[in-house]
Design a protein that fits this description.
By secondary structure, the protein is α/β, with parallel strands linked by helices. It is built from 17 helices and 22 strands. The strands form 5 sheets. An 8-stranded parallel beta barrel has the order 1-2-3-7-8-9-10-14, surrounded by 5 helices. Strands 15-16-17-22-19-20 form a 6-stranded antiparallel sheet. Strand 19 and strand 20 form a beta hairpin. Bound molecules: 1-deoxynojirimycin (NOJ). 1-deoxynojirimycin (NOJ) binds next to loops.
């Protein structure tokens, strides 16, 4: 028995899969996905190799921000089902070896939430101080508008309240005031409630905004990070395996603060910087931006982890690139204005951005699974779903899951023309891209990704190990190694469409060490000085594994 048991820190090498109950599987033909439908798909997800499901918000909501505007933190949207359906689903997922985490969206509420309705009605409401009010928008207040297409200010005047309130997102999403200890207690209560129903943690929405306080609040919450420490401590006491997977889109050095000096804040954070650098590297067919980003990424504290991803449910944000770099990515992957959003991102899925090129798409997912960290997939990535640009805004990438070639995509028996978010047409339609057509085809993207999830799980070096890039003269080659205990994985990716001959060296291999192919069958032998050459096709990729001492780690 080791003090740090690898299965206790289950998130270190989990395979996380994000889905929205609303768009995954509709069991009753009303055009809306539901928990019963999702439960019927649990075996599919387990077979894919997923070990943790992340559910996007399914709480009661007016739906202005696709459920991220919550009107009851302790409820379930009746269209998604009942608490009975929810618990059955969690139980089924756990039975098949999958944990479940859900979105914890507590930076703000919907303006329809009874707390806000009470708060705006009177200055003496017990909920007044649950929100952030001002007689005039303060000049030294928060800056930066998240939804510049719809909002012109972070402050909205409320006629009833006769004050302005702060809203980081849409005006119908007033920010909660975390400087108020009652709000912090309520947040803990919400997290405690859902974890008591069998969940294994939360994807925490908009963390930097959540802990942001106004200047006048300094006495109430002198160190906003204390709030994160408190939530982590509370959850760990209630439920030792619970994780907080935080959305913190900040430069890496600032992200490090959100893990906590002692690793006692967020358990995991998405690597937005690495993701953006990856797209720049893909656009340039030059590995340097990615090498720099991952190389400079601070290592996560021992009980913490980076979450890596290729796409998520939002626009593909490129906000941390320079304007010129962003334009390069736009030109390569989203040149038309309707593909772009908020001047900072692309409302597209990966396969259409890469022109549907199977080798290119596979190389990107091989990269995702071999980068140090925990990979997070967005539903439909495993079959190469595309977006529907006819659907407004970010919803373009949130169309229903494509299960079969039928008009309703196997998602619903409702008339597909009545769906709020119709399927993509043509090349990316359910007819051409669906689970049924790929699942039993060994050459499909689905089979490829299913293979990656298995190989990733068999190589703890990737989730647990230390990262180092391997120097290579060929600009398009991203070569790195991850070392853990006595084992190493070396992964080599050619970001160019042209074949390359990659000259590499492993300084710790001076005894004609064999490198065993993880994704294929070709063993490579290093020369006595540790050097070796890999011939890679355009967008070729290899994972090689060895154990010090020479045997195949298998
Ligand atoms: C981040 C979520 O990913 C996004 O979809 C949402 O609009 C905002 N937070 C507000 O909750």
């Amino acid at each position: 028995m080791r003090i740090t048991d690898t299965s206790d820190l289950w998130w270190k090498n989990a395979v996380i899969y994000c889905l929205d109950v609303e768009t995954f599987a509709d069991s009753d033909g009303d055009g809306h996905g539901d928990f019963q439908g999702l439960s019927q798909r649990v075996d599919y997800l387990a077979d894919l190799g997923v070990t943790c499901l992340w559910l996007m918000p399914f709480y009661p909501s007016p739906g202005v921000d696709d459920g991220y505007d919550i009107s009851d933190f302790y409820g379930i949207d009746p269209k998604a089902g009942t608490f009975g359906d929810f618990v059955e689903f969690v139980r089924t997922a756990r039975d098949r070896g999958m944990r479940v985490i859900v979105d914890l969206v507590v930076n703000h509420t919907s303006d329809q939430h009874p707390w806000f309705q009470s708060a705006r009605a009177s200055k003496t409401s017990p909920y007044r101080d649950w929100y952030v009010w001002a007689d005039e928008p303060p000049a030294d207040g928060p800056q930066g508008i998240t939804f510049p297409d719809k909002e012109v200010s972070l402050w909205e005047y409320d006629d009833k309240a006769r004050q302005f309130y702060l809203h980081r997102f849409y005006k119908s999403q007033p920010d909660l005031n975390v400087a108020n200890p009652k709000v912090r207690d309520e947040i803990a209560k919400i997290a405690g409630f859902w974890s008591a129903l069998g969940l294994s943690g939360f994807r925490v929405d908009a963390v930097p905004f959540l802990i942001e306080t106004m200047t006048g609040d300094a006495d109430a919450l002198p160190d906003p990070h204390q709030h994160l420490r408190d939530v982590r401590g509370f959850l760990s006491r209630r439920h030792g395996e619970a994780v907080l997977l935080g959305e913190v889109n900040l430069p890496h050095e600032q992200q490090r603060e959100f893990f906590g000096d002692d690793g006692d804040e967020l358990t995991m954070q998405f690597d937005f910087i690495g993701m953006q650098a990856m797209y720049l590297s893909l656009a340039r067919q030059d590995a340097s931006p990615l090498i720099r980003a991952i190389g400079e990424r601070p290592s996560s504290p021992p009980d913490s982890q980076w979450g890596t991803f290729v796409r998520n449910h939002d626009e593909l944000t490129l906000d941390k690139l320079t304007i010129a770099e962003r334009q390069e990515v736009f030109a390569a992957f989203g040149p038309k204005p309707e593909m772009q959003l908020y001047d900072r991102g692309l409302r597209r899925r990966l396969p259409p951005m890469l022109g549907g090129d199977p080798a290119w798409i596979r190389m990107v997912y091989s990269l995702l699974f071999s980068l140090p960290g925990t990979p997070v997939l967005f539903y439909g990535e495993e079959i190469g779903m595309g977006e529907n640009l006819d659907v407004p805004g970010r919803l373009a990438v949130r169309t229903p899951m494509q299960w079969t070639a039928e008009p309703g995509g196997g998602f619903t028996t409702a008339d597909p023309s009545t769906l709020d978010r119709p399927f993509p047409k043509g090349r990316w339609s359910p007819k051409n891209v669906n689970v049924a057509g790929q699942r039993r085809d060994p050459e499909s993207l689905h089979s490829f990704i299913r293979g990656l999830t298995r190989r990733y799980r068999e190589c703890p070096e990737l989730g647990w190990g230390t990262f180092a890039s391997l120097p290579c003269e060929t600009a398009s080659v991203f070569a790195h190694r991850c070392d853990w205990e006595d084992r190493s994985v070396v992964a080599v990716h050619n970001l160019s469409s042209e074949p390359v001959s990659a000259q590499l060296r492993l300084d710790d291999c001076t005894k004609r060490q064999h490198l065993y192919d993880v994704l294929g069958t070709e063993t490579t032998t290093v020369a006595a000085d540790g050097s070796f050459t890999l011939e890679l096709e355009g967008y070729g990729h290899r994972w090689l594994r060895y154990r010090s001492g020479g045997t195949d780690p298998v």
